[in-house]
Design a protein that fits this description.
SDR; NAD(P)-bd_dom_sf; NADP-dependent 3-hydroxy acid dehydrogenase YdfG; 43% helix; seven-stranded parallel β-sheet; Rossmann fold
Length: 237
């Protein structure tokens, strides 16, 4: 089992939801974690909570995955502070759901720019650091990355693309010692798409479950790579 204490992780969209659940699990393992968000208030609040866990450490960076220069600056800040990136998690994502007739050009572009192009920017910005550490790159896709549904044209396109992107990156980078995995959750109890988690969400995947999954992947012997993981609630709601 790999010792995670003092290992480092960079997580996009880590101020809440799945990204926060992953950050919390990693800090609990003694890792040094940076989270990004477009909101200074959100990132500050999340970092305060993470640093109360007492084992690892966290800091926050305001950055936008849709802007390559912003990602480069965020990665640079991270490396300057903690020296290397052992784990890079591309988690930031949004969803606009509407029929082809109703979805706007702006909604389409924002979905693709955040969920797909933003992941490419994140990996591109962090690639040299991952090469040096022989690190791990994890993306958070979705079951919507293999299962299409009505009013999902933009979201399906972004997540189908993300699933394919991560698998292609895995083939490109594994000979350099960089592991790549995409995690594809079904229903998760998060704030996604303006939902507020509540007691009715007990049947859903919880953010701490996905945090534990990332910890388990980090603990796994590097000779073995689960490259694509579908995860769904045990029972439908």
């Amino acid at each position: 089992m790999q010792n995670l204490e003092n290992k480092t992780a960079f997580i996009t969209g880590g101020s809440k939801g799945i990204g926060y659940g992953i950050a919390e699990a990693l800090v609990t393992q003694g890792m040094k974690v940076a989270i990004t968000s477009r909101s200074q208030d959100a990132v500050d609040k999340a970092v305060r909570s993470l640093n109360q866990l007492g084992k690892g450490a966290a800091f926050g960076i305001v950055a936008d995955v849709r802007d390559f220069e912003s990602q480069q600056k965020a990665i640079q800040l991270f490396v300057e502070k903690w020296g290397q990136i052992d784990l890079l998690v591309a988690n930031a994502g949004i969803g606009h759901f509407a029929s082809i007739q109703d979805i706007t050009i702006e909604q389409w572009q924002e979905t693709i720019d955040t969920n797909l192009t933003g992941v490419f920017y994140t990996l591109k910005a962090g690639l040299e650091a991952l090469r040096k550490s022989k690190g791990y790159f994890i993306t958070i896709s979705s079951l919507a990355g293999t299962n299409f549904f009505a009013k999902g044209s933009a979201y399906n396109a972004s997540k189908f693309g993300l699933t394919g992107f991560t698998q292609a990156a895995m083939l490109d980078l594994r000979n350099e010692g960089i592991r790549c995995t995409t995690i594809m959750p079904g229903s998760v109890a998060t704030y996604f798409n303006d939902h507020v988690p509540n007691k009715e969400d007990a049947w859903k995947i919880q953010i701490e479950d996905l945090g534990q999954m990332v910890v388990d992947l980090m603990h796994m012997n590097p000779r073995t790579l689960p490259s694509k993981i579908e995860v769904r609630p045990s029972m439908p709601g």
